[in-house]
Every structure is written in structure tokens, then in C-alpha cells.
Amino acid sequence: MTPGIYPTVMEMCRGEPQTADISGHPTLGVFAREWATFTLGVRGHNRPIISFSVILEDVERAQIGWVRTGHFVKKLRPGDHKGVGEEKYSFGLDCQRGGILYEGSFTNIEGLSIENGAVIRVENKGEQFLVNGELVASSIALDETFQLPPDLQQYNLTPAFSGKGKWRICEVELESSPSEHKPTISQTHI
To answer: Which end of the chain is more exposed for a tag (fewer CB within 10 A), N or C?
Structure first.
């Protein structure tokens, strides 16, 4: 599928709008001169995003994950704020500290180190986090990795990103329509 048929958009939801440049298709991404939080949404259709990939080009304190739609994302808030996984109704991968954040609670992932240039993939609304193709956290794994909070699994979730610097979306996977049997890829640019 092409991005024009099932478009996705990035929007700032925390921070000062004049401190960030958001690029649209075909290179969906952000250059944030100050630390801010952005969401990835759909435009002109109702197929929810179920998985996505982000390339960290040059980012400080990147946090990548999901926020509960309608609670975390209410309106643009300027000023100091907590990021994805630090605020209520959110969870994500903390790329600086090397672990998972859930509503402010941090779980270290032993040995996880994420550098600029890494590709972070978040699958099935946060059930799996991959760094450069390697599974680092999973809610469906049988070992001692992160377990997705069950209270978030039952709600609509929106992809979200916090950080300062430059990153871009390289892949978005949408939920299939009822008549299809596999997910739809909206864009792929690596």
C-alpha cells in the first residue's frame, strides 16, 4: 500500500511547536530542537496502527511506545512534561536508560544499549520491542522479559515518541479491514 492511500501523520502533543519541524510523506519524521512528545496517527481512514518502526538518526533521551488514546493525547501542552512511559496512560522503550517505562515505573533490560542509527520496531501495539531486529522485550515471551500491562491492552493505543533531535518513521503497519487476512503496510522507507 502507498502512504497516499492510507496516510499517517505525526503531531506534537507535548512541547513548544516552534521548536520542532515535522516532515510529511514520503519521509515522515521529526527534528526537535527541544525535548518534546509526538504521536503518530492516521488521516482520512480508520485503520489503526498496530506496528511501526523508527530510525533514531541523532536523538537525545528517546522514549518510544504507546499512549492511551483520549487520555494522554488530549491537547497540545507546552512547557516541561514527562515523556512516553513516564506519564500516566503510557508505556515505552527508554532508549537512554535501556529499559521499559510504564506510567513512570522503570524496568531495566540487562545489557540493552541503543545508539543513534538504531532501528526500533514496536509490534502488535507494544507486545514486542525490537532493536535492530533483535527482540529485547515481549509481553508474550515465556522468559522474564517485560509484561505489557493488562489494563492497557484493552484500550485504543496511539504510537508516541519523546526526545530531542532527529528521527524518522520507516515503517507503519495498519490493522487489516475485516475482509482482509493480513496487515497492511502503509509506508516503508529505510
So the answer is: C
pLDDT above 70 for 70: yes
Mean pLDDT computed over 41-48: 82
**Domain assignment of residue 39, yes or no:** yes
Instruction: Kindly report the CATH number assigned to the domain that includes residue 149.
Output: 2.60.120.920
Environment class of residue 155 by beta-carbon count within 10 Å: exposed (0-12), middle (13-18) or buried (19+)? Answer: middle
Q: Is residue 1 part of a domain?
A: no
Q: How far is CA 6 from CA 129, 174, 175, 177, in A?
A: 24, 9, 11, 12
Average pLDDT value over all residues in the chain: 81
